[in-house]
Amino acid sequence: MPLIQPRPFKVPKKSAAAQVSQLRVSPAPVGGLNFRDSIAEMPPQDALILKNFIPKRTGTQLRPGWQYTTSVLLEDPIVSLFSYNVPDVVNGKLFAASGGDIWDVTQDPPVVSQASTGSTEDHWVTTQFSTSAGNFLLAVSPGAGYWTYDGSTWTQQSITGLPSDPETVMVWKNRVWFTIADSSSVYYLDTIDAITGTAVQFEMGSLLRNGGYIRSLINWTMDAGIGVDDYLVVVGSEGDLGVWQGTDPTDPDKFSLRGVWYVGPVPDYGNISAAYGGDVMLISELGLVPISKLVNGQFSADLSQGPSSKVQSVLSPLITELKHNPSFDLRIITSSEILMIKLPPQGSAYEQFCMNVSTGSWCTFDNMPIVSCCLFGGEFYFATDDNRIARGLYGELDQVSIDGTLGQAVQGEIQTAFNAYDAPGNLKKFVMARPVFVTRQPPSFKLRINTQYSTQGVAGSPSFNSDPNSEWDVDSWNLGRWSSASNTYEIWTGVFGLGYYGSLRMRVRGLGGTTTFSSYHVMGEMGGIM
Questions:
Q1: What is the pLDDT of residues 474-506, one digit of tens each?
Q2: pTM here?
Q3: Structural domain includes residue 516
Q4: 464: left (phi over 0), alpha (psi -120 to 50) or beta
Q5: 464, part of any domain
Q6: Nearest Cα residue to 83 out of 287, 405, 377, 400
Q7: Could you list the residue range(s) of the whole structural domain that residue 41 is in?
Q8: Cβ contacts of residue 53 below 8 Å, gap of 6+?
Q9: DSSP per-residue codes, 50-97
Q10: Domain with 466 in it: what CATH number?
Q11: Alpha-carbon distance values, 205 to 180, 201, 209, 220, 442 (Å)
């Protein structure tokens, strides 16, 4: 038998372990808040919470910050804020109503522009009107009557036939119109292109089928197929809405009622309408109502209809609860491409619902203590709860002092829609998450993965220190740090979650207006059905 040389011993090779973790990529919630759809069937690009993040087409962006423009605290709350805008912005004025006086708050410190107006609650409604005599700001307030401002002087106008308690003022077909507190009548000046004259009463009680009083008059410019025309929209406090057309209210043949619709009760205080393209948006208990769709039969109380449909189940109850409180404000802020619904404060909490006017997606704002607000020179200004003025949606930090110092990072919070990651019947173990930001400076964040429809929040707040950048030709060369363009920042974070569905809950602090959350990655292990 031949001898066989023994082979050297070799350690058996172990086969490589199979990869068990899977990576999934999800978009940022560019679809905005969604309180309408089932939590189990919500699109992955929607959100359950979207606070201080504006949903845009390419991601969700931390809202810009705000900065004080006055340092002196007025003695009384600033109930109304309004502006006088002229072509030469240098001559524009920003006014605040406080303590029965009108203050000029264009510059710091504020000065009294008109003392002792007689206003009982400092609720003012204003509009601008240009005539051959100049540009005028028309202002009314219960107790104060009717005032005009010509760029330098306030004048209390004495109008024959006008009651002493006008509540709102507007201009339609070059004629000044008024509503009166708790009245079903409106009044208009008998002379066109004039800010004074004799007031003529026009009774509109017949359209108030649900009672109440005339709350607001709105100028609606619309193309009805025979050319562009201005319609007069009359809004009753209990929700009746009438549309008038014509030119001359003194002639029944030239002024007629087109129809009456129901829009739901409206708030008692504040600006409740805003022009939106060729339409007018109106706040009521039905949410945000476009008048064009209402009168054309295309709007209903169905939650699936209307621009506020995704948030209506939350927004409408808030409007119902707060409609008698001062004050609501509806503003379109073009510089930030948003429509803002400012709610009355709820205790010490201030909240605003905002819609991206380009995409129709919704979010909420907080940490902006907006008591009253207006647009001045195209920019958003508001009165704060400490009786000062601030420029809102401006800069990268919140609560910046008038000299540009101090300030704090903007804090936002997100909870995305629950995602089954294409396997709703399989149990999943989530182990890591990685948010992706496009920004000039990496933000700080804390996150968790919620499962099984939990909305548990993140513990604590992330810390963040803004990185001050230097200005060219101002700071020292070779010492200052120059600002850079936006970069992409992403980092893996360990998480734990076990469930069939997963949702990213995240709190972020960073630079407002320049920090965009674009997407997030989730790593987990796929299990069986049980």
A1: 555 555 555 557 899 999 999 999 999 999 999
A2: 0.92
A3: yes
A4: beta
A5: yes
A6: 377
A7: 21-64+412-526
A8: 29, 60, 61, 62, 63, 363, 412, 413, 414, 508, 517
A9: EESEEE-SS-EEEPP-EEES--SPPSS---EEEEE--SSGGG-EEEEE
A10: 2.60.120
A11: 13, 12, 8, 21, 59
